[in-house]
Amino acid sequence: MVVADAGYGVSTPFRTGLEERRLSYVLALTGKEVAHAEEAEPHRPAYGGLGPPTLPRYRTPPRAVSALAEETGPEQFTQVTWRQGSKGPMT
Predict the structure, then answer these.
(1) Which of 2, 60, 76, 83 is at a distance of 20 to 30 A from 25, taking alpha carbons?
(2) Cα(23)–Cα(42) distance, rounded to whole angstroms?
């Protein structure tokens, strides 16, 4: 299990590296990150024949990760304590 602060949490190459290594991780975020809901599916618009083929895109804009987390409800979260800090358990 890898635990890191927001300095690493906002780094896409760092997260990608963890996923490529199949490591479990918990990373802090700054609160500015956006994402698509889990059920969102990208679609590929029809190719008109001119220029490069169209790339897949989402029909809805990404939303703040904090808003998506609030919508899932507290029952979807598990509090984790990873070590004892100078002021008590770090959760």
Answers:
(1) 60
(2) 26
Which of 21, 34, 26 shows the shortest CA–CA distance to 6? 26
Summarised one tens digit per residue, pLDDT across range 33-81 is 999 998 999 998 888 888 898 889 999 999 998 899 888 888 888 887 8
Residues 37, 28: Cα–Cα separation, whole Å: 19
In DSSP terms, 83 is beta-bridged to 90
DSSP 8-state secondary structure symbol assigned to residue 90: E
pTM exceeding 0.85? no
Strand partners, 47: none
